Amino acid sequence: MSHTEPLPQSWIEQLRALAPAMMAASPYARALGAELGEVERGVALLRLPYQEAFIGDPSTGVIAGGVVTALLDQTCGYAVWSALDQFAPIATLDLRIDYMRPARPREPLQARAECYKLGRAIAFVRGLAFETDPGDPVAAAQGVFVLRGKKAGAELRGRTSPPAKTTVKADGELEGAATNSSLPEDPQ
Prior knowledge:
Blueprint: H1 11-25, H2 27-32, E1 35-40, E2 43-48, E3 55-57, E4 62-63, H3 65-83, E5 90-99, E6 109-118, E7 122-130, E8 139-147, E9 167-168, E10 174-175
Antiparallel strand pairs: 1-2, 2-6, 3-4, 5-8, 6-7, 7-8, 9-10
């Protein structure tokens, strides 16, 4: 029996194939210029070539801390996408960065992130930024991302005013959260 249609790709293969177009479509990602190095279920690694435009201290050539934050944020997002079964819009809800040392001047950076808990409405991630050795990190990230899609976040749509308190339940759901009511309903 011959197949006239190609066999379906896994979501990870699709994500690898889509990454260049996704990065090109985002002015933020385009300006950063990171490239997807590795991706597997729940884990992503991005590489960031050194650019003179990223220098935060001209006297040392060290890149600005905001660039490190942007790299970690984007890497954490890819880790979340790789933990899902299909593409869904996501947004950074909270991102904590602990800077451990300045990046070495004129060296490219890498960031590796892991989505270690995936709930129905949110995902928890952690990651490291480093030059070549993850054991000697420039910075560490801990983040929470909001998931939007077929099931994720469905209970949050349609709210027009934020509640007084938002909490994260043990199963990863948001309780009492508000979202932008102008977002369309899911078609599914």
